[in-house]
Design goal:
Blueprint (H helix, E strand, L loop, with lengths): L4 H38 L5 E6 L4 E4 L1 H9 L3 E4 L2 E4 L2 H16 L8 E6 L5 E8 L5 H5 L4 E8 L9 H7 L4 H8 L1
Antiparallel strand pairs: 1-2, 1-7, 3-4, 5-6, 6-7
Helix pairs in contact: 5-6
Length: 180
Amino acid sequence: PRYGDSEVRLLANVAPDICRAVRISLALNQQALRSNALEASLDVLASGVYRIGRDGRIDYMNFAAERQVKGGRGLRVANGRLVPVDCAARVAFDRAISETISCATPQERVTTLAIPDGSRTGLIATILPLRREAWWDLCNSPGAVAAMFVQDPVVAVTLPGEAFAKLYRLSDCERRVILA
């Protein structure tokens, strides 16, 4: 009773647009949820994971990567960019990033670098291109174009005790000894 025929016709005209806007909003929300779930999964890894943009800036770092940068032994952040402390590693790193970015598919270019930390140890970095869509170069998108996985060989990966024990059929006593 509040609305007349003209209001109903007007709503009928805009209803498809409203429904489409709601579907787009739901799709974007789903994408954000998937992205958050992936980042939460990456945060529990022992290896540092970095997403690097076209301009070399860091787009994302997991918790292990933040610890690597805070330690500042082999890598540091300068003006939002990831920079090896060692000069020779810095040159190799910049070259690897630019070569990786210029590749069209991840299979074309995967680079592994040694990043010394000034002492007798260092980090090992694997850089690979992220998949780009055809529209990527057309719109000069500033998003991440490379992923870098950095491992510290000194940091031991912790194995879940129960899973390890089941895998090798260890008794409770053997498991306690190994974990100790």
